[in-house]
Structures are given as C-alpha cells and as structure tokens.
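notes to self, project folder thing:

trying the whole complex as one job this time. last attempt i did each chain seperately and stitching them together was a nightmare. three parts in total, labels are on each line so i dont mix them up again. if this works i'll redo the older ones the same way
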Amino acid sequence: MARISLKNLRHCYRPNPAAESDWALKRFELEFSDGSATALLGPSGCGKTTLLNIISGLLKPSEGSVWFDDRDVTTLPPDAREIAQVFQFPVVYDTMSVYGNLAFPLRNRGVPGDAVDRRVREIAAMLDLGDMLDRRASGLTADGKQKISLGRGLVRSDVNVIMFDEPLTVIDPQLKWRLRSKLKELHRRLGITMIYVTHDQTEALTFADRVIVMNDGIVVQAGTPVDLFERPQHTFVGHFIGSPGMNLLPATLDGGVTRFAGHAVQIATAPGAVPAGAQLQIGVRPEFVSFSGTGIPVNIEKVADAGRFRVVETRHEQSTIRLLVGEDMPLPSERAFLRFDPSFTYLYADGWRQGGGPG
Amino acid sequence: MSGRTPNQKAWFLVLPVVVLVAFNAVIPLMTVVNYSVQETFGDNQFFFEGVTWFEQILHSTRFHEALQRQLLFTAIILAIELPLGVAIALAMPRRGAWASVCLVLMAMPLLIPWNVVGAMWNIFALPDIGLLGHSLNALGFDYNFTRQPFSAWSTLIAMDVWHWTSLVVLLAYAGLSSIPDAFYQAAKIDGASAWAVFCYIQLPKMKRVLMIAVLLRFMDSFMIYTEAIVLTGGGPGNATSVLSIDLVKIALGQFDLGPAAAMSLIYFLIILLLSWVFYAVMTRDEVQ
Amino acid sequence: MKRIKWLLPALYIVFVLLPIYWLLNMSFKTTNEILGSFTLWPDHFTLANYRTILTDPTWYTGYLNSLTYVLMNTVISVALALPAAYAFSRYRFMGDKHLFFWLLSNRMAPPAVFALPFFQLYSAIGLFDTHVAVALAHCLFNIPLAVWILEGFMSGVPKELDETAFVDGYPFWRFFIRIFIPTIAAGIGVAAFFCFMFSWVELLLAKTLTAVVAKPIAAVMTRTASTSGYELGLLAAAGALTIIPGAFVIYFVRNYIAKGFALGRV
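result (full assembly):
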C-alpha cells in the first residue's frame, strides 16, 4: 500500500527533443492517494501507457521523479518497487500450473513453502480459481489467464500498487463486466492502490473513484466520475465522456453576456477575463437540455431510440443540438424552443472552461 | 496446436500448396519406384526384378557400416550445432545496428554453393598451403586430413558446424524476437532470475522453432553429399564415406538405374522413419 | 556479466569469417600462386578473376539466371505457404497432421536419382531450360519448409488476437494483412531468407532442368571446375560473389527478424 506522487515529470522517447510535440508526457504533477482506485482515461497515443510504465519502473522518465510514500524510487527497477502489473494480453507461464504461476513471485523471493501454499490458496479462492490450481495455465480461457496475471500481483502481501494496462482488451464482451466487478470487489476488500489505464470510458467510470483524463501527454481533468460528467473542464472531456457527448456551440461574449446565435445564454459561473482572440464555445450536455416555451428556436431533425430514453437531434441554423428525452414524453412537432440548464452550461475558450468553480 | 477449430473448408487454403508439391513429388517418385524394381540392360529394355535390389543392399555389410558412420556423424553435429546455435542466439543483441551486422555476417556461410564450400575447406585445410592446415601443423599438431581418419572427421565436422550452425542461430533468434516484451516485463516484476526467464519463458516459446531446427538439421545432415565429397572424397579410404557418398559410389560403380533407384528409396525411407519418430516424440504433448 | 555475453557471438563470427577471408584471399590470387605457396595476402594481387566474371557473359548471366528463378521461387513459396500455414495453425481438418508430415517428407529425398524423372517431367510439359521450371521444381522442398516455419510462428500468436479483430468488425483480409502479418514478421523474414538460400545453393535440379538459357551460376562453376582442372582463383572469386545477393536479402529482412514485435494493439 502506498501513496504515489509524480513530481515535475516529463518524458520524451527521443534523445533530443526539439519541439513541445516531441514530448510524450508534458509537465506533470500527480498524486495517487494510498488505497485509491484511479483510472487513466484517454485515446490511443495520449501517453497513458508511458505514464504507467514510468510508475512501474519499466521506463525511466526523461525528467522528474517518482515517489512511493516518502521514498524516491525513480532509479529503482520494477522488482524493487514492489508493484504488480496486468498487461493488455494475458501473460502466464505456459509450462507451469495455475498453482505454479501464483506461487512463482513468492518462490522467487524465498518465501517458505507453507506460507506460499497458504497465500496461493487464499488468493485463488478470492479469484474463483480454487478448483483450477492443478491445471496447466496454458489451458485456461483469456479471462482465466488474466485472473492468473492479477493473482500473481495480489499474492505478494507487500504490493504497493497494482497497475492495469487495458486488461480487458482480449476478454470476451460477455465476460468483461464480470471481471470488472471482480476487480472492484477486490479493491474494496484489499484496499490496495490501483491504477487502471483504458480508452473505454465505461470501464474507467465504473471502476474508479477518481478518473484522470489524458490527451496528448497532458492531464486534461482529474476528478470523480460525477465531476467529469457534470463539470467538464475541457471540451475534450465533454465529448469523450458521455454518450452522446456534450453539445459544443459557437459563442460570443460581449459585455459579460454570453450569446449563442444572438440569444443570451446563462452559464454556470461568470467567465471573467477571457483570452483575446480565443475561440469561444458554449458547452452543455444533452442531459441538461430540455424543451421549453421560450429559448432557442430549433427544428427537430431526427429522433433515435436508445432504450429508456430518446436522443433528439435538433438544428438551429448551422448548429446541431442534441437532447435527451424520456421514452414516454411527448415531442413537439417540427419547431420548438430549447432551454439549457444554467447550472450545467459552461463557456469554453480554446477548449478550456472559463470561470472558477470546482473540477 | 491447441484451440484449433474444426473446419473442413480449411482445405481450400492448403490446396495450392498440395497441388504444387504433389506435382513435383508424386510423378518423379513413381518413376523412381518403377526403376527400383526393374533391371535394365540399356536400350530401354526393362525386366522386372522385384525386391532383388533392396535385399542386396540391405544385406551388405558395406551398407551397414556406411549407415553407422552416418548416424555417428549426425549425432555429433546435432550435439554441437543445436546448443551452440541457441546459445549464440541468446547472446546476440535483440535490436539495433549490431544485430543487423551479426545477422548479415552469420548468413554468409549459408549462401555459398555447396561445392564451393567443400572446395574452400579443402584448400583451407591443406597442410601446406591452407590457413587451417598450415597453422595447425605450425602449432605442433600432426594434421593431415587427406591421410588421417581422425583429421578427416574433425575437418568434416568443423566444416558442417561452420556451414550450418547459422541456420540454427537464425531460427532461434527469430523465435526469440517473437516473444512480446510484456513477458520479460512481467518476469522482471515477478523477480525472476535470468535462468528462470530462460526456462519458463524463452525455451517454451522457442519450442516450435527449435523443433524445426532439430528436424531440419537431422534431415539435411543425413543427406549431406556435395560438400563432403568435395572435401574428402569419402576418404581417406572409407573413413568419411557417409551414407549418400557410399550409395553414390556403389551406384556409379554399377552404372545401373535399378540399384541406384532402390538405394535412393531405402535412403529416403530411413530418413522418413527416423524423422517420423523425432516428429511424433516432439509433438506428443500437443494432442490436447 | 553482460560483457561476457558478447564474447560468444563475437568468437563465432570470427570463426565464420576465417574461411571467407581465405576465400577472398584466393580470389585475388592466380591459381598458380594459390597452389604454390602459403601467403596471408596475395603476393601478386590481381583482379583478373573478378574481371573475367564480370565481363564474360557466360559467368554473369549465370548469376542473373540464378537470381531470377530464386526470387520467383521465394515469392511463390512464401505466398502459397501463408494461407496453408494459417490453416494448419488455426483449424483442424481431415488428415491435417498427416498432410503436414507428408509436406515435410518432401525434403527428405536425396536428389540424385530424382534428377532424371524431373528432367522427363519438365521436358514433357515443355518447360525445359526455363527459369519457371527451376522455380517450380524448387517448390518441392521450399514450400514445405516455408509452411513449416510459418506455422511454427503463427502458433505462437494466441487465437484471442484473431477474435478481437473479428469482434471489432475487421474483414478477414484486412486483419490478416494489417495485424496478423506484422505479428509473425520474424517468421516471414526467416522463411523468405531460407527459401532464397536453399534455392540459391541447390545445384542438381537446377543443372538438370537447364541447358543454356537459364543456366544457374552454380552450374557454371562446376563446369569451370571440371574442364580446366581447378581454376581455383576464378572459382574463389565466383564463390565470393555468390554471397552478395543473399547478403542483400538478409539485410532487407533484418528488421523483420531482429525487431521484437510486441503483440499488436488492435
């Protein structure tokens, strides 16, 4: 169990970086509290695997340091950091049995036989692998093998952090949720610090207490799933999270009044000073848009059924605005007016949210 | 081969290969079988002789001695080339400029036509004008491969090791390259020693590739002819007359299609049998 | 410890280079000098041998002919072997294990007496003395080798990779080319090089199936060896030159063989 801190971190894969774009990870300060479950969420290439490998010690950062509690571990190799990592595809020792696989890390550290046996059986029971201990590891299905990978990490009682690098990629879709729930259950039970890397928002939002959204080598926003959903700090978070993503509409700001297509729009927090020449956008999630008597006039274009609700696509001049409507609610005919819930409507300049507030 | 799904349509994928290989294999084979059971006195006149040739050959002591020499030769070079090749592949850098240099240099012996290989080593090993021969004698060894059986054997083996170990190296190296980095990373995290990494990751993952190397070297060493005959001519006397050399001597001596064809078939069947044994043993634990 | 590891490949390379150095040494000498004395470097350095080869059409067409049919064979062998190896690796079908071994068995036949039947067969279909004939004939032992090697590497790729591609909606050919092939790149590199190599050095069939038009370099060399006694200097130069095309081939596939391919992200 440990608190992990990253200070002044920057990483470049090439020896002589010239431009800012050469850096895989731009300046980083991050902290993972002891026993937390954090997800690193972002698209391919955003740097999340780089970050993971720096924490685990498989990669040494170009600049900055990594701290476990109060120890600087930046120069320590992976086996000295007491970490565990579950990879994208199952890594098991084919020639050994399930028992042998789980016992391997302990035996390498010279733990006596009966302690090994006790621990292996304990972990196997937790992972529902108890009755497969004598089977050859190579004979298990993909999710079984991932459980073995996970087990090898859990079996060591002094593990500081467990890291997951998109572990559900090769798992059957039907079994994904089962493994996901198992991971959450294990976290609650064992309280080990866990860091989970993924590009799938469902995995991130259901697994983690705190989600760190990354894009292009920087942290775009870090917060609870609710935070990210209700108060996105960046347009990227707005459209990456949530399905459908946030509506982004071109905006203007004059005399402290935000306008979309000439209509005044109330937003959650006063914008204050906005950088000159910045591209302004109003962001509001479809969940917080509703029909009303007055407001922004739109034409209804499309209605898509999504189970318990419907996604209505409307149009005002060049802009498309989506909103969610309950399945039983009546829809106005072609023309209607939309209202944006001011508590959840924000102004973005060059992608970044303007105005103070939590998040 | 675990986890394979039954699918008879897979035959379509295999068909082009089967057709092309069978075209080259079946008709000539049938021709040879045809010759092997006949006697000819020239003028395209053939008389059916049945298994006469086969019996003659299989009962001759000369044949048995040649077979023994062959088995000894094959055993020795397998024992040297396989561990050596694997060890070199493990020790080579996994990527980068040096890896390329190693690969290109090691590939060279494989590319030289076999008659040139034999001729090269012949000159190389000559006691007076060859680098090897001259040096060995200068160091005090009494070395003359044209006259001493032991020297001849050593030279033959050295030539084969020089020629073919690179094949094992290339196969093993490619096999090692295919192991994803994640396995090495996981092993590091698990605190595995270098020996454990070799036993539990590298060796199992190279199993199939090593099997190919073993069978290939086994088969090819049994068929060795050109290099050996150019190097020693089978001598001194009969000392290095491995199986194919002896068979060709007999065939040329008798100048007959019948015995020659029969010999080729026997030869082929021996290799087939031994390879089948090898193959069955190595794939036995794959019937999952 | 790491330093010592380098010693083994280094020593082996020295061992490999010694006879080659001797070969080069000979190639710059006259035959008389080779047979007459022992010198580490030619007393009378001469390029005459190389000049002969590079200017005499009989010699350099030998190289071109060999190169032609060998490249044809390599492409055919690897191209046909890929689907077959995939079938052996991923599917179970009637007679698969025996078919696989039968393929292997085609490499177990000593060529000596098969030469005549081959000659008859290819003459009968009118392909005598063509590059195509040798390219096809060499498929006898190269295709099984390619299938064998490729199957070995394909079996190292877990089936889960295939399945994730299907789930993501990739059509099969796209999955095969964009994802599967890069994963087995080391196998393809090695298979291609071996096909090239075994076809390049094969003498008997190549000699039997050709006369003038498609005569390979190995045949030209044996002709030299027999007619004028042993023109050692010339032979040495010719031998040295035969290394070059293959060196190019392995240089081109080196990135396939050497780079460690982590399992591709789908």
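what i see at first glance: The interface with chain B takes residues 56, 58, 77-79, 83-85, 87-89, 91, 93-96, 104-105, 108-109, 138-139, 149, 152-153 of chain A (CB under 8 Å).
need to look closer tmrw
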